[in-house]
Amino acid sequence: MRRIAVPWGVLALWIAVLALAGPFAGKLGDVQHNRAVDYLPASADSTQVAKIQDQLPGGETTELVLVYHRDGGLSSADRAAASDQVADIERELNLVRAPEGVPSKSGDTVMYPVASTSPGQDEKARDAFVNDVRDIAHDTGAGMSVDVGGPGAVATDASEVYQSLDGPLLYTTVAVVALLLILIYRSPFLWLVPLAVAGVADFLSMGVAYGLNQAFGTTISGQSQGVMTILVFGAGTDYALLIVSRYREELRRFERPYDAMRAALRGCGPAVLASSATVAVGLLCLLAADLNSSRGMGPLGAVGVLCALVAMLTLLPAVLVLLGRRVFWPLVPAFGSRPKERRSLFTAMGSSAGRRPLTVLGVGAVLLGALALGAFALPGSLKQEDSFTDKPDSVVAMRTLADAYPEASSQPITVIAPTGKAAEAVATARDTDGVTDVTRGRGGGGWTEINVVAKAAPQTAAETATIEALRDGLDGQGAYVGGPSAEQLDLKDTNARDRLVVVPIVLAAVLLILVALLRSLVAPLLLLAAVVAVWGAALGIGGLVFGPLFGFEGTDPGLGLLSFVFLVALGVDYGIFLMHRMREEVLGGAPTGAAALTALRTTGAVIASAGLVLAATFAVLTSMPLVQLVELGFVIAVGVLLDTFLVRTYLVTSASYALGRKVWWPGPLSRKRDEAAPPSAPEREFVPAP
After folding, report:
1. pLDDT tens digit sequence for 81-92
2. Rounded Cα distance, 454 and 447, in Å
3. Tens digits of per-residue pLDDT, 547-565?
4. Dihedral angle at the C-alpha atoms of 288, 292, 294, 300, nearest 10 degrees?
5. What is the pTM of this model?
């Protein structure tokens, strides 16, 4: 009776949980924030500027630039048409000031700065305002182009891209995972079970993430939500592969599916718990980051992993038990049968690593080191307008402006100064090298807004020097320097600070978990060194392809930190399965070398399948229209593949083989002597199908 009641009870409990989470999961998209200033720490200059601007009369300003252009020069009819459209915008929309046209020296372009305080901080209102301007400022069809650029337009285009990610990202991820599961399981039914359970876990994670936002103000961005979905399906499918593989084995030993599942969970449950805990702890180390977006991604990633873990340890076993053996059709594991005999690829790979362990280790280390050198070829910091794989209207406008107005920036720098020192701040700004124009703007609440126009194009090295010179010159006057370019500079500086703080915390936290689990110091250090080498090599491969092959003009400042955290946490996750099995073999009396080969043979096929699934899910990000997502997905996918098929298979195995009992130092296993030389690997063995 219990064998039937428990699975049905678990299923009923999950239905109740989903009913409670449903209303909250649907609201997650409403609390997304994708403005650069939302990601910055409160101490950043640009954050202070944005907050004070909200308190000025009218609130936050949405700034746009209308760009009218004709190759060969604008005609008088073109200028008249542009003037009429701008007049319509002024008449129909609430603007801060009447737009005035600024013709280029070449005569082929005229720009109209447009600003409004009506949208305020409401991103939806901002997007509606930008789209209204675009509807009015339409192409005349007579050869003159009209593009809407400026910070507000770039923010709207980025917001629309993030909002459009949810559907395609989810569908593509599901399709990729489904295809791989069909190939792995070779069953028309079995693949549906872990995929459906992963979908349930994803739905639950969205509800929990919304709750975190409401309770603790956790930053939710389109990027962090997308990564959470990837982790749910990637990590969840990995756990499912391990559980289903062990369950299939136990079905040959136990007549009743309930008993087989209990044995399977006892066998692989502790390792799954340990590995998921390591990933979650590694991601939670991002809470030490100063950047809001990175700090918010840590809890969201941990939520995704833990929701996947709970679903795979409860809902998946319940569904499999209720479906019985028939879910494995046509390869149904019969009670009392033996698994099909077949040649194992990992037997051959382990044997080659065992014959010349030092040679394999040396060659692998040199290869990873050579690949890591490619990181020096990574392009510089990614500009805001270069963050799209397909260039939207706002980017076209910004590039047209850069070509038509090389003598001045099209994107003002905003200075906020105390009203009593505004005149002094204006004088300081005018005397700053690289500044071409300074005008006073709004005032109120004891603060005055000052618009500074730099000579250099936005987000260039020359403009960055101007911003830094302004901050140095205004230091001591109580003024803040902000604006879109300053925000990007603060993002870069904060990311650099976070790398110095978060990386050591991640390494220390993961090392402590591994030491407690493996009761050794050498083995954890070996695993950490391996995953750090993987991260360096994956980043180096990115440096070799991002510019020459993908045509990217910059690297996201957060790529190094985020890829490090994910690859260390996920890479160690697989190392746990390998080293934990190796330790079991040694405890059973096997020499360390033989134990390393046995661990590789017995875990290799399942973990390789899991690595392929995880790499494929992160590779889905490379199909997204944002450069930072493409770069992150590429580096993590390449790193997982390197770890699965090179580092864990060859380097960790060969290092363990070469070190022998020393790999368990200073634990008690290191003080025992291997009684015999490791036996040669058999040519054939029984390997359970995944």
Report:
1. 999 999 999 989
2. 22
3. 898 989 889 888 999 999 9
4. 100
5. 0.84
Residues 3-36: tens digit of each pLDDT? 677 889 999 999 999 999 888 888 887 787 766 6
Three-class SS state of 344: coil
| DSSP state, residue 381 | B
Instruction: Find, among 433, 488, 443, the residue nearest to 57 by Cα.
Output: 443
CB under 8 Å to 620, separation ≥6 — which residues?
Answer: 169, 172, 173, 176, 230, 633
Nearest CA-CA partner of 249 in 328, 326, 333, 344: 333
Kindly give the interhelix angle for 222-251 and 192-216, rounded to the nearest 10 degrees.
140
Q: Which two tokens stand for residue 291?
A: 């950047």
Q: What burial class does residue 626 get, using C-beta atoms within 10 Å of its C-beta: 0-12 exposed, 13-18 middle, 19+ buried?
A: buried
pLDDT tens across 382-396, in order? 887 788 888 888 888
| Cβ 41 vs Cβ 47: under 8 Å | yes
CB atoms inside a 10 Å sphere around CB 488: 21
Query: Distance between CA 56 and CA 456 in Å, rounded?
Result: 28
Specify the residue for token string 């280390």. Answer: 365
With 0-12 / 13-18 / 19 or more C-beta atoms within 10 angstroms meaning exposed / middle / buried, residue 59 is: middle
Give me the residues paired with residue 453 across strands: 437
How far apart, in whole angstroms, are the C-alpha atoms of residue 375 and residue 317? 43
Report the C-alpha gap between 563 and 286 in whole angstroms: 12
Other CB atoms closer than 10 Å to residue 493's CB: what's the count? 15
